[in-house]
Amino acid sequence: MNFAKIQADFTQTFISGNRWLSLLEGLLITLELTFLALILGAILGVLVAVVRSSHDQMKAQHKSNKFLNFANVVCELYVTIIRGTPVMVQLLIMYFVIMASTTNTLLVATLSFGINSGAYVSEIIRGGIMSVDKGQMEAGRSLGLSYVQTMRFIVIPQAIKNILPALGNEFIALLKETSIVNVIGMKDLTKWAINVQGKTYQAFMPFLGIAAVYLVLVIILTKLVKILERRLNKDV
Fold first, then answer.
1. Could you say which of 5, 64, 150, 213 is the most buried, measured as most Cβ atoms within 10 Å of its Cβ?
2. pLDDT tens, the chain, 236 aa long
3. Distance CA 98, CA 89 (A)
4. Residues 183, 157: contact at Cβ < 8 Å?
């Protein structure tokens, strides 16, 4: 192994021209996008999961609500379309079709990844809600809580404990999926590596570098999820 060449490639990739500063900028963009999309995805996921689980519960009780039926159809269509199409195609449609008039790539990417993540999160949360004993809902209502209050304070907290590992996996997947935003011009980690490759004419070191960055981020996120899971289990 030629260590002198590896050192030269490392210097050329990260040190020359202060390229490590551009790497940090790409990292910040990746983290910002992931955080914003995570929040949007969580909000959409909870809303869709509550609508669909409420519809399923009413259906099991042989009850009907026209507004809830319509909302459930919309949510089911949303989940089917989003989960049935590639995230890159959704990103390109959002950038070139739906929001073609804007130059705010961060907004476009946040909406694209947030909407995509929301579809998957909704199914995870819906499964968690349905796994909570039905007696919990009945107990909450018997204490005078409204349906929304019972879901917020009793059912959803229990559901989160059950689905935390699955949610953690979805958030990790979201972080890695953001690596495609360079197709709309965002200067994330992947765009940095492509730019460095174009200047240095060597791909091994820049792409190995961002792979190592993503790996470290995933390891940190995995550790945080495990810590949170242990703390929630202590409260049971």
1. 150
2. 578 878 888 888 888 888 889 999 999 999 999 999 999 999 999 999 989 988 887 787 778 788 889 999 999 999 999 999 999 999 999 999 999 999 899 999 999 999 999 999 999 998 888 888 877 777 887 888 877 788 778 887 888 888 888 999 999 999 999 999 999 999 999 999 999 999 888 888 999 999 999 999 999 999 998 888 888 777 55
3. 12
4. no
Chain position carrying tokens 């940095």: 192
d(CA 227, CA 159): 18
Q: How many residues does the chain have?
A: 236
Nearest to 175 by CA among 90, 116, 230: 116
Q: Classify residue 159 by burial, with Cβ atoms within 10 Å: 0-12, 13-18, 19+.
A: buried
Q: How many CB atoms lie within 10 A of CB 25?
A: 14
